[in-house]
Amino acid sequence: MENLLGKNLEELREVAAQCGLKPFVGNQLCDWLYKKKVSSWDMMPNISKAAKAAISARYSLGTAPASGRASSADGTVKYLFPVECTTAPGITERSAVESVVIPDDDRRTLCVSSQAGCRMGCRFCMTGRQGWHGNLSTADILNQFICVDSPETITNAVFMGMGEPFDNYEAVSKALEVLTAPWGFAWSPKRITVSTIGVLPALRRYLDSQRCHLAVSLHNPFPEEREAFMPVQKAWDEQAVISLLRQYDFSGQRRVSFEYTMFGGWNDSKRHADALIRLLKGLECRVNLIRFHKIPDFPFESSSSSVMEAFKERLGNNGITCTIRASRGEDILAACGMLAGKHK
Q: Which helix (H) or strand (E) holds 323?
């Protein structure tokens, strides 16, 4: 059965018309789904029982409650959501993905998943090491915004959960439309950051059509070293990614940042800092340094705090804004690179 969640206002009006109802019923559906974030038909009192019966005979809402929940000592909460993934045209498979809510003073950020697993194969990422199990639908992506605790208090979103967002670009793009449209969540694009490993065709489409922030997973400025940990380097070279980014303006409201997970003795030397400075010179950006979170069967450890501070200082002294991201939710396996979900 087709989902209502993920449809835009015009599509919801068409749904109403197909069910023999007036277009304003589509407006009501849009309001209940995206403004009020309801998760059941019973929560729509201004739509008649007859109208709901006619629509529900053909469509499902597309919402599904979390099937698991874990809380960290630091306040971070991880959710497990059941999903119906698309593995090939017309073929779906049941799986599950994890989402994370991170509280920080007056901010409450949702870390969103876009795929079950991932096919990018980064050696240091639990999601990448489990392989790819399918693409999430737009409904499954938006469901993460609706079915967490107190969804109305979510202030920001980062597409940094399970999967490569630009490997599922159509569904992610549709979700961004719903999140930022006046008839949808009506969020400012500045509240949303989409992360990518550097999938060039979709990256160009994103830069041309979206105003949300961008985060690029870089992790090493030397192509041959990056390729050893990140096979995607063979397909989309980091130099080509940077060259594309230089064609766009990031001096205004939209910004680009680079994610740089630090591994002791692999990418944390002065040589790496200086190469990173050369690579990013002249590009309006920031670098986020991330402590590596240990995972099974991977030999590297995180860089020490002193090494990370020295790396940050070297970049800062050369005009690159650099921050060290606080680690959150490690005790419940919710930190960067630790999401794995449960799947058949």
A: strand 321-324
